[in-house]
Design goal:
The protein is an alpha/beta fold and about 140 residues long. It contains four helices and six strands, in the order E-E-H-E-E-H-E-H-E-H.
Length: about 140
């Protein structure tokens, strides 16, 4: 930006994106200051480097907003867990299933766990029925 540019000549781009041409660095800086903007190096690998006349503060703000937006879009998906018991009552079942639907609506993944205790393990079909009921309730 402005005095930090080390090249003698730069390819100049105006504030509206129009090509001005190759100019000596002092002339390019003077043009930018006359317009009330900064001279920002946008492509330093080019020969000569490409510099644009722009408001640097606004440019940095827009970059940070774009970065924030991309971070917001790339949030990792949470895995929520809901635990059921084979002998769950109808009210508790409805409440837990409603919460599962909320989690899915928010974009989270949901892991449904059936917890067995003692002799309940002798009847895995009860757990399978609970899972089927949850899946059926969530589909609608």
């Amino acid at each position: 930006m402005n005095d930090r540019i080390r090249s003698r000549e730069v390819r100049l781009v105006g504030p509206e994106g129009d090509q001005i041409g190759i100019r000596p660095l002092p002339e390019a800086i003077a043009m930018a200051r006359d317009l009330g903007f900064d001279l920002v190096e946008v492509a330093d690998k080019a020969d000569p480097p490409v510099c644009r006349i722009m408001d640097y503060g606004k440019y940095k703000y827009e970059q940070s907003q774009r970065a924030k937006e991309s971070r917001k879009k790339s949030t990792h998906i949470l895995v929520k867990e809901m635990k059921y018991r084979p002998k769950i009552g109808p009210g508790d079942f409805a409440t837990k299933t409603r919460k599962v639907e909320e989690f899915l609506g928010d974009g989270s993944k949901v892991k449904v766990t059936i917890m067995f205790r003692g002799r309940e393990m002798q009847h895995p079909e009860l757990g399978r029925r609970i899972l089927d009921r949850v899946a059926e309730a969530v589909e609608h």
